[in-house]
Structure formats: C-alpha cells, structure tokens
Amino acid sequence: MTRGGTPANSVTPGRLRARRALIDTYQQAVVYMRSDCAVCRAEGFEAQAQVEVVANGRHVPAIVHRVDAAWLEHDEAALSEAAWDLLGLKGGEEVSVRHATQLESLSFLRAKVYGRKLDYPSMRALIDDVSHGRMSDLHLAAFVTACAGGRLDQQEIVALTRAMVDAGDRIRWPMSPVMDKHCVGGLPGNRTSLIIVPIVAACGVVMPKTSSRAITSPAGTADTMETLAPVTLDVATMRRTVEREGGCIAWGGTAQLSPADDVLIRVERPLELDSEAQLVASVLSKKAAVGSQRVLIDLPVGLTAKVRSSAAAQSLAASLTAVGAAIGLQVQVMETDGRQPVGRGIGPALEAMDVLAVLERRADAPQDLRERALMLAGAVLEMAGRSAPGSGLALAARTLDSGQALKKFIAICEAQGGMREPPHASHCEVVPATSAGHVGAIDNRRLARAAKLAGAPQDAAAGAVIHVRLGDTVATGQPLYTLHAQSPGELAYALAYVHAQTPIVTIDPR
Amino acid sequence: MTRGGTPANSVTPGRLRARRALIDTYQQAVVYMRSDCAVCRAEGFEAQAQVEVVANGRHVPAIVHRVDAAWLEHDEAALSEAAWDLLGLKGGEEVSVRHATQLESLSFLRAKVYGRKLDYPSMRALIDDVSHGRMSDLHLAAFVTACAGGRLDQQEIVALTRAMVDAGDRIRWPMSPVMDKHCVGGLPGNRTSLIIVPIVAACGVVMPKTSSRAITSPAGTADTMETLAPVTLDVATMRRTVEREGGCIAWGGTAQLSPADDVLIRVERPLELDSEAQLVASVLSKKAAVGSQRVLIDLPVGLTAKVRSSAAAQSLAASLTAVGAAIGLQVQVMETDGRQPVGRGIGPALEAMDVLAVLERRADAPQDLRERALMLAGAVLEMAGRSAPGSGLALAARTLDSGQALKKFIAICEAQGGMREPPHASHCEVVPATSAGHVGAIDNRRLARAAKLAGAPQDAAAGAVIHVRLGDTVATGQPLYTLHAQSPGELAYALAYVHAQTPIVTIDPR
Q1: Which of A64, A185, B7, B81 could disulfide-pair with A49, CB 3.0 to 4.6 Å?
Q2: What's the CA gap between A86 and A63, in Å, rounded?
Q3: Which residues of B are less than 8 Å from A22 in CB distance?
C-alpha cells in the first residue's frame, strides 16, 4: 500500500508512517500505535506513556494509546485531531516517537505544589510549556490545583498574568484611551457589549472589543455577534474597522492572544476550580494582550451566578484592580445583579434579537438589557473622560435613543464584512407554569443547560426565551419559557431534562 | 449486520451497541462514539466530556472520544480496555451514555483544594470514588496535588489511611504476631524479602508477605518471586501456605486490598509528586489490609534513591510510626544505605539468581544482599519477640548458614504451587570501563532504566547485572555491567540508551 510521502516498503526502522486517526480527544494529543509494533516494544511504551512525536520538522508532546484492532497497521502511527493539527501533517510522513524529555518547568510546578513562591521566570517557563501544548492533562490539572485556594499571592498573580501576556502576541493601538469591558460571566443573555460598543464609538470613544466564543455557556459574545456579522477578523481587518468606526466586536482567536488561557480554562472547567487568581490572570492577560488601557468589569453577583456574594465580589474586585495597576491597566469593577438572566433570549440568535430590539428602540425590547447596557456604557464614557462623572448614563441614553448607536452598529457590521439576519429555529415548545403564584427564583445554570441541550451554541438559532422575571405574578398554564431547537430530537432532549428535575422557575404560592 | 445480543435493526433509540475498541488507554475508561451519531448530537457530548456508560446492569464513568473514521458505525459505542473490563461486556449489548452525575465527593476535593481539613467521612467518600474508577484523571491529579506539599496534617493522613483500608477487603490471621516488612523503594535489586521470609518462618515467626509487581522499576518482589514459584495466589491458598509453612511470598493483587492505592500511584508517578502523606497512607493501608500487626520498614537513603537525605528519612519515619500506631500497627523504620544497587542482578530472573545464591550460601553470592537480608531479618525476629534485643542478627545468620532458610524457601515455593528455574536471557552484552580509576558513583535510576529498555520486567529474563561496587578499582576495558535481553532489538535499544548519556558508572581517576 502506497501513501504520499514514503513508499510502503521503505519506512526507516524505528519510524512509523503518519496517519490521521480521525479521533477527537480534545486538547490532549494522542498517538495510536499497535501494542505489538516494533517501536512500542522496543521503547517499552505503555498506554498513557508520555512521549514526543517528531514529524514534519516539529515535535509535539503526546500520550500513547495502544491499539490491537485491525484498522491500524504495524508500521503506522495514527494521530488524534489535536496531534494532527499541531504537527501540520498531511499523511504518510515518517514520524518518530520517543520517550518525552522531562520538561524543565515541571520542577517549578513541583516547587509550587510544595508551597514555594514562583517568580516571573518560573511562571514564564510554565506558561510557555502550557501554551505550546507540552503539558499533559495531568500536569495541567496539578498546576491549576497548585495555584488555587489562595496559594498565589499578589506578586505571583502579577507574574502569572505577565507570563500569560508575554507568551503570545500583543496588539498596540495608536489611539488613546483604548477602552474595554468584560463580564465575569455566569449570567445567561448578558450581551451588553453589542450595545455598549456602538454607543461609545458613536461618542468618539475607541473600543476594539474582542470576545470569546462560549466554552460552557449557551452563547458567547462572539457567537451572538456572529449571527449579525463576521467575527473571525484577522488583526488587519480589526484595525481597519476600528480606524473607520472607532470600535469592533470580533472573535479574539485569530491572533495568539494569551494562548495559555484557553488551555488552562479547558482544564479548570471540569475541575470546577474557579480560583480567584486564575480568573484575574485570565481576564487581565487577555485585555493587556489586545492592547486595552482602561477596562470596565461587570461583576454579576447572585446565588446561581459565578460570584455568589458581595464579599466575594469585593475580594475579586480588589485583586482585579491591584493586579491591573501592576501591569499598566486601569480597572474599574461594577457589581451588578446576578439573580436572573438578562434579556429574554438565551442562545446566539435569540440574544442577537434582543440586542437589535434595544438598538432599534422597539417597545417590546427587554428593558433590563437596555438599562444594564446604558449603565455600563455610561461608566465607560466616564472612564474614557468623554463624560464628566455622573453624566455618562445620560449621554449613553441620548446616543441610543437618537438612533446614533443603531447607525454605528450597522456601520461596524458592514466594516466587519456585512450585516446579516439572525436565523430562526424550526422547532419550539413552551414550558408553562404548573401552579399559580409569584416567580420566586430562576435557576440560571439549569436554564443555560436546557438551552445547550436544545442545541446552543452550535446551532446558532437554538436556545431558550424566558418570558417572566423575578416577582412576576403567574397563572397556571402561563408560559414561563420557550425552548427553540433545529430538530425534534434536540427539542425532546431539552424538554426531558427540564421535566426530570426540580423546576427551573420556582413559583411561590400567593 | 447482526451481533450477539440485539438484532441489527432494533437498537432502542438513544442507545448504542457495545463493541470492544481494542484500544488500551490505561486506567482511564473511554467510550468512542461517532461525532455525528444521534446520541452525541442530542446530548451535546464534546470530546473529553465526562459521562456515565450504563450496560450489563453496571454503570461506569468514562470520557468521550469522538470518532470520524470508518471503523465505527453510527449505532455503535466502542469501549477502551479499561471500560470494557469494568462493564464486563461480551459485545452487542445495548449501552446508554449519559452526562455524568456530579460526584458528591468532588465537593470534598474542592474543600481540600481551598485549604479545609478533611475528616474520615469525606476521605472515605473520595477514596470510594477513586477505587471504583469514578474519578477522571483530571480529578485524580487535582486530589493528589491537593494532598501533597504537607497539606494533610497527621489526623488527615490517618483518616486517608483508614479510608483506603476500609475501601477494600481485609485479611485477618488467627496467629500472632503477624510480621511484615516493606522497602520504600528506589533501590534496584533490593529483593531481601525472599530471604527474610524463609529465615523468620524457619524460626517459627509468621510472615505472610504480599508484594507488588513493578510499577516503574525493572522488577517488583512479586515479579522476582514469580520466576521461582507461582505468586497469584487466592486468599485461600495464601492461608494454606502460611498455615503449613509460616510464611508466603505472594502477589497482593488477587484480593481487593486498598484498591485505591494502585489508582493513585498511577497518577502520582507521571506527576512525580512523592508526597510523604500519600506514601505513608499507601504503605500502611496495604499492610493493615493484609492483616499485618508489626511492620519493619527498610528506608534506603541516597542521592539517587527515593529518599535523598537523613532528615527526609527521619521525617518520613516519624510519620510512618505515628500513623501506624493510630491504626493499630507497630512500625519500626530502619535507615539503610541507598547509594548503589543491592546485589548484582536487576530484573526478575537475575535478581532471583542472586537470592538463590545467598540461600544456597554459594561463595560467589552477593555479600551485600546477604548482609542486608540478615540485618533486616534479625530486626524482624526481635520485633516478633523471637530474639532478645541485639540477638536477632546472630539467629538469622545461623538459620541461613545451617541451610534451614533454604529448606523453608523450597517448602514455601512448593506450597505456593511448585518451584521452578528462573529463565536465562538469550542475548547479552558487556559494557566496559572506558578509563581506569575508582568507581565514584553509580546512578540507580539510569541503570534501572537501561534494564527496562532491555525488557525487564515483562521479559522475566531481561535486565542488567552489575559487576562493580562503589570504591572498586577498575582498569580500562574491565566489565562494569552486562545487559541481558530476549531479542537483539531490545538489547540494541538499551545499549543505545546507555551510550547516549553520561555514564551510569562514574569512574574517578586515580
């Protein structure tokens, strides 16, 4: 059998022929070899052995999975998707697989585990290895754990943040001040950025907003914006958009901005270790890398949000402000209400429709989304020096109500590549109240989960629309929320989930 | 296509047909599904998603790997070896795959990460989940890290140890005192147990020794013994052997003794986090589970052994003794020399030959192995009350030199199922000195690595034989050590390794 690269009968002894396994193992690079192949036997590779795969002029750390099934030949090494991408292979290249050399940074990891303080060079070595995919999942989990629970002091958080910035690219803008905004998360539907950016840009304030896609939520700002305009802009397009319109709302993934951040987040999430140190380093490293100078941070506080109490919020705010100052960022934190979703839509297109309703000043636009966006936009205008303290909110409201913000939003969409209509889902079903009373509580997390089961964010049109707010009076049979999906199967799964658990919307009797 | 279990066209919607993937992913259970199969889409399973696989009346935690290759059908779920074994499948059974329910014990894990003290019920819940394979590799890594670096106080170590004992079976012996011995490790060739057990048993002291197979070393006690007699004894055979002969040397894996231990060790090793707390819990939980009452611990100290300094040894000894007392074990620790291998052979059969040479009192027997074994056996005899303090060594020497120990060893082998000859390797090569002088240092770890590359312990006959000791005078060309292997390829790999690095045996000029 011949493949591109090397004739079938001339694989160098000790080498294997590369093949794409077409197995997605997420960010862990895996190399599949037959347990009875010559290399496995000679090197003594056991399953999960840490190795280095060398091919195509690159070398990539990976773990070994041993195969005894018929689909893999004795002279082949199959690579998981992560490994395949990292090596840049086409198929048929010769690869060699060898025991991994010990990462130097692992001695720093152990030092941290044993309670020693890490300086910038140590953090830099660790973060470089993290961002280059050289650390196994086990080591990443150990690193994240060793940094949690208050084990990093402020100097170490500053060192970690700087190391995360320095591990990637950095964008610098010719204008000043460069504004930014971030929401710590955990609040479905909180897509205020799509309203804030056009408001402040229309007032002449520069806000080159980059945002993430959803990692565990039903929609990220980038997903929602993408239903209205292209977001995967390269840095040149971002610059042109900002030069022309004063703002953009783009996906931050085209440049290598704080590349270790995503790697760490994907390990922190399954561990549910939301350590303050890592949140600060994650947020601020991304802001510094994208060239922001003054950052407004929206911190929703609520029992089912990410930050559960005002005390926790104040601790986090103090850290964000102090670490920000240490790396040259002016940071202001606003505690906001995190007890219920913002707006009505949850899911990319459904949230985009709420945003358009606010920008278009429609009578049925969700007032809570409008008011949050205005409050935050006002704060940005004041931080930028465009408004006197106390006058920002009024300027923001005038800019929105006059239609200038809508006009600017359309212009930004056009500059990013063209505005489009968000899609509509083909299937939906209402979930009604089963008793009468007042809405006593709304579980953000479970509502978000239902929206995900319905297909968000992969199906941009899928998700949920909530029809009630805390305190509303409801009658039996009154619609509480509606699930939207692109297929009956997904709709059924989401409905099965909401009915199998305690109610997402708690109704207290009169 | 029809398989045993369910006709091809009648898989229940939402279910998949079980198939053995024949992929060894070590202890992490993996379920392979097509990314475009109905269940994956409906549940929104991403790669590495934590799920529960339900089949055959069992449920097993696993992670998802998504497949786009042709070998997996849309209605199939393929299981990695670990998952296949845990579920006890034959092939064709219907499986359902659902999002994992949150483990309750994870809240205890987080509590520990955040610095809180864990009590016995929390440790018990965590260890139960560990031993039942319910914790993902990420969570195991987080647990191991959270317990390292002195973060467990003595009460917590006691709780952890008790939880590890209680998670599995416990053997109780009618005799008393039941003696045991353990070597903390890191010293190749240190197979003193095979000499100590027959000496003390011949003196009427009961020593039902269970040992491990090698995890990262070229031979474990069980591997070495297995070249001479069967070791995979069930508990009934162990009891018969001990009742008849007063001792046994068996593999401890047939009973479920401290089942979480192996799971944790396999995560600790790649992390190289040898935390004192976990070592204490690991050793003592195994001893308590196997019914031992008085335990002698051999603690080799040396720069390339596991314990590097006398201070570290004393700290460990104090912990072993105190925790032992808290769980009803009498523990005595002896610091021994860890600067060079013991005996000459490294690898199961090669070490067995050293043991036989000592038992047979051959003139060319390695004297260091003989002397260590006698010293430790003497200490066991005194701990058992069989010898007055200070007289144990002399009794041990008499028992060995009279041939009683050899006779008892043969009887033990017969009782375990029959004595046999250790195998001999077919290929070997000498590594000579390249200069003249004195042997200044011997690198235990690299010599062990060379023995492993040569094939130990999978090939029982493979390994290394060292011909010199620290301080010996050597001439250029004099044999330093010989590598043994079953195939020319493995011999070549081991030789390539030793020649590519700094010398394993350091020769200082005269």
Answers
A1: A64
A2: 14
A3: 67-69
* CB nearest B149 (choices: A41, A113, A273): A113
Say yes or no: B318 contacts chain A, CB-CB below 8 A. no
Contact yes or no for A48 and B28 at CB 8 A: yes
Residues A247 and A197: beta-carbon distance below 8 Å: yes
User: Is residue A254 predicted with pLDDT exceeding 80?
Assistant: no
Q: Which residue of B has its CA nearest to A485?
A: B42
Q: What are phi and psi of A487, to 5 degrees?
A: -145, 150
Q: Using alpha carbons, list the distances in angstroms from residue A155 to B115, B124, B308.
A: 20, 37, 32
pLDDT at B132 over 90: no
Largest alpha-carbon pair distance within chain A? 81
Single pTM value for the model: 0.84
* Active-site annotation holds for A137: no
Q: How far is B265 from chain A, CA to nearest CA, in Å?
A: 13
Q: Which of residues 220-239 of A touch B (CB under 8 A)?
A: none
| Inter-residue contact B111 to B152 (CB < 8 Å) | no
Residue contact A67–B139, C-beta within 8 A: no
Structure tokens at A129: 């290895």
Q: How many angstroms separate the CA atoms of B363 and B388, rounded?
A: 30
- How many Cβ atoms are within 10 Å of A256's Cβ, its own excluded? 12
> Which residue type, as a one-letter code, is found at position A152?
L
Q: Which of A305, A279, A307 is nearest to A447 (CA)?
A: A305
Reply yes or no on whether the pLDDT at B214 is more than 50: yes
d(CA A213, CA B183): 53
Distance between start and end Cα atoms, chain B: 76
Nearest to B452 among A44, A115, A458 (CB): A44
Evaluate the omega torsion of the peptide bond into residue A177 and state whether it is cis, within 30 degrees of 0: yes
Cβ-in-10-Å burial (0-12, 13-18, 19+) of A423 comes to: middle
**Sheet with A179-183, side-by-side order of all strands:** A179-183, A294-301, A330-337
* H helices present in A335-487, as ranges: 348-359, 367-383, 392-401, 404-416, 444-453
- Residue B182 CB contacts under 8 Å (≥ 6 apart), including other chains: B283, B287, B295, B296, B297, B298
SS3 content of chain B, % helix, strand, coil (to 5): 40, 20, 40
Read off the DSSP letter of residue A178.
Answer: B
A148 and B271 within 8 Å at the Cβ level: the answer is: no
Chain A contacts of B500, Cβ < 8 Å? none
Query: A25 near A81, Cβ under 8 Å?
Result: yes
Are residues B106 and A272, on separate chains, in Cβ contact within 8 Å?
A: yes
> Which of A10-14, A77-81, B188-192, B264-268 has maximum average pLDDT?
A77-81
Distance of CA B413 to the CA centre of its chain: 22
Whether residue A451 contacts residue A344, with contact meaning beta carbons closer than 8 Å, is answered with no
Interface contact flag, B68 A22, Cβ < 8 Å: yes
Task: Collect all residues of chain B within an 8 Å Cβ-Cβ radius of residue A273.
Answer: 110, 113, 142
Q: Which helix (H) or strand (E) holds B63?
A: strand B58-67
Neighboring chain A residues of B48 at a CB cutoff of 8 Å: 25-28, 270
DSSP one-letter code for B366: -
Number of H helices, E strands in chain A: 18, 19
